[in-house]
């Protein structure tokens, strides 16, 4: 029987495993080292297995300890989520709603959802940041925002709950007067064609993508920090790049920009990514945040490329 297991024991177990020593783990849970050792020993006795090999200078997780660590983390996350939900149910309206939105997501939908939220909660102030790549996820992990919208599958964290919103089509474009536009007439471009020209690329303001590039094909790059800058440089003819369809539809219709087709860029130069509404499972959402989330879920829908 495992009735003697406690959440405190599990928190101590996870703290020691994360920090790599009983002393460091004791510091994380604000206990003396002897109390931490005692808690781990009691947990091992309840489970009937050794969680750590103590024969070396530092305790090392046993194979059984590694297997059960994932279970302990999952249990603690669920308990934290339950506590957060209970706190949220007992709290009043929050004074401010803070959001970080992926630069690929249509801002009009966010604006419409905020308008509906403000109609119900007019006293709530709004703090909105538009960030690319890992920015929305980092905003939640760093507790800079209550809700975030992220696009794509590259950034995930078990501390976050995600709900799918809608598809976001991203197309590859170039200015109508650019040499690639003439090359692309009636043909599908090869990677070598694209690599011969400058690619305009967004940089990640966070360390979450350190050492990785996303969708970079050309060895010639111009890296910028905002989507508006990227669009402006592409329209000026400096190079080619990928942009959300909602942002370039008018420029394509007015023939200022041209779509590029290449098998390396998705069919017809189009890539469809899923967008997600995200929040920390250990942080309660107030009434205004819940109202905004509900409105955005209802307003967001699949868009045809």
Extract low-pLDDT stretches. Answer: none
Q: Element order, helices and strands?
A: HHHEEHEHEHEEHHEEHEHEEH
Q: Beta-strand level of the residues, as a percent range?
A: 15-25%
Q: Helix count?
A: 11
Shape: globular
What is the fold named in CATH at topology level of the largest domain? D-Maltodextrin-Binding Protein, domain 2
How many angstroms separate the termini? 57 Å
Structural class: alpha/beta
Q: What level of helicity do the residues show? A: 40-55%
- Quickly count the domains: 3
* Biggest β-sheet description: 7 strands, mixed
- Mean pLDDT reading: 88
The value of Rg in angstroms is 25 Å
CATH architecture of the largest domain: 3-Layer(aba) Sandwich
Strands, total number: 11
CATH class of the largest domain: Alpha Beta
InterPro entries: LysR_HTH_N, LysR_subst-bd, WH-like_DNA-bd_sf, WH_DNA-bd_sf
Protein name: DNA-binding transcriptional LysR family regulator
Keywords: DNA-binding, Transcription, Transcription regulation
GO molecular function, one term: transcription cis-regulatory region binding
